[in-house]
Amino acid sequence: MNAPSKPGSKADRDVLRQDMTVAGCTLADIAIEMRTRFRMRPREAWRHAHGWTLQQAADRITQVSTTRPGESVAADASLVGKWEKWPGPSSRRPSLPVLLAMAEAFACGVEDLLDLDDRRGLPKADLHLLIHRPPTVEPPTIPSSIVAPPELAGTDLVRFAADESATWAQWAEASNVGDIALEQLMAETRALASDYLTSDPVPLFVRTRALRDRVFALLEGHQYPRQSADLYVAAGYLCGLLAWMSSDLGQLRDADTQGRTAWLCAELAGHNDLRAWVLSTRSKVAFWDGRLREAINFARHGATYQTTGSVAVLLSCQEADAWSELGAQDEALAALARVEEARAAMSGADEIGGIFSCLPARQENYAAAAQLRVGRPAEALRSADKALRLLAVQPVRAYGTEAQIHISQAAAHLATGEAEGAIEALAPVLALPPDHRLAPVTRRLGELRSGIGRPNAGSTAAVGLRQAIEEFCVDSAPRHLALSPGEGSA
Question: How would DSSP label each residue in 223-255?
């Protein structure tokens, strides 16, 4: 005996639609009944009022949107499903062009597709435009897809088929982004990646998020495949940058989420340099989250790709970093040897630069930290001193990297019994403004603090330095972020 179907099943919807159609009900009546009886979101109810699958609705939305200059929508079944669920979990907010195309496809008004939750979730500017938009001329009352086409034969059939192909070609030829706009997006991405080395992280996070949203909005439209690939590259780097920033602000779970989205973009673009940089970012997040084996695996995976810039150098640095944290001296030193090999094998410049580059000073910073952890303070001090010399001649001095170099320098001095040298090395770090006190710096300072003055734990210098570090870490960027009022997730 077959189990009865669940309420709202396809069988239930088909019966309801047929009964209401026979009773002379309109599509709007059917959609309202679908909503109330089966507790559907408005957009889902209108789709089922037509009896369409997600893919059929996607095809119709894409088709009607081509009549709107600059507002074409490239929909698929997955996107329609996410638009229907919004603002619920695993959803995506439909843009204005999407809502207008949906309304035309479903033969209804935009207001019919929105309930109170939708209106609360829409940006105020979008809601204002919807409320005050001019009325459409001769709004459709019956979707053209349910009007039976005329019986065609002979030359009429051939001509009609040619017209269909021409219509599709017009859609395929249209694009919502040009090559100049793509070039500008990449230029802005490079600027953000560079600015992050010297700027306050939170305002830059806001700028990066805004640019990412612009790229996401463009990807919801229609463009040539090569342009889509370029947009996915930009989106991948921007999500990777947001992941790096989120980690530096102490938000490791959110950083992981950004990293997964960045990886999806890299895969969709088929871009090896982006793949490697995303895996480097994910290795960094895993390292600071204590998932050291994952950090090693991400770094090794990234190193398997054929790349042109300095990402292979950074990946080997990160592998050495994680091995040293595990106390695996042989593996850490072997990874440091591969750093030099990767530097020698570089075949081109970095595509983005800034945080997505590994200049020699950054390389020596990693080397110093790894050498410290495996018990080689003299080698660590040499690497730290070399890093500072290299940093002094760089066009841009990254304050985060410089702070970590000074911390390694101080730790090396302490390990060799030179307390005065440690205090002197830490002075520039302790002078950093609160907005530049990122999580990796406060974490490393915390580790240093726990080891300060162990032979003479009560010495005046040791007590004063431990107190200064404690005050530094309390008044930090992650701390400020945690205490600030939330304004929505990115």
Answer: --HHHHHHHHHHHHHHHHHHHHHHHHTT-HHHH
For the whole model, what pTM was predicted? 0.67
Compute the distance between CA of residue 142 and CA of residue 113 in angstroms, rounded to an integer.
16
Q: Is 263 exposed, middle or buried (0-12, 13-18, 19+ CB in 10 A)?
A: buried
Q: How far is CA 161 from CA 58, 66, 166, 428, in A?
A: 22, 18, 9, 74
Question: In whole angstroms, what is the distance from residue 41 CA to residue 358 CA?
Answer: 49
- Specify the length of the chain in residues: 490
Measured distance CA(406)–CA(19) in Å, rounded: 77
| CA gap 346, 214 in Å, rounded | 33
In order of 64, 66, 164, the CA distances from 98 in angstroms are 10, 11, 23
**Angle, CA 22 vertex, CA 21 and CA 25 arms, to 5°:** 45
The residues facing 353 across adjacent strands are 356
Give 113's DSSP letter. G
- Amino acid letter, 299: A
| Residue extents of the structural domains in the chain | 10-146, 179-358
For residue range 303-347, list pLDDT tens digits in order: 999 999 999 999 999 999 999 999 999 999 999 999 999 999 998
Q: How far is CA 338 from CA 107, 272, 341, in A?
A: 62, 20, 5
DSSP one-letter code for 144: G
Look up residue 11 and give its two tokens.
Answer: 């069988």
**How many Å apart are CA 432 and CA 152, to the nearest integer?**
77
CATH 3.40.50.2000 fits 179-358, yes or no: no
- Nearest-5° Cα angle at 234, 63 to 484: 105
What is the rounded (10 degree) CA torsion for 438, 440, 442, 443?
150
Tens digit of pLDDT for each residue in 135-170? 443 333 334 433 335 566 677 777 777 777 776 776
Instruction: Compute and round to an integer the Cα radius of gyration of the chain.
Output: 29
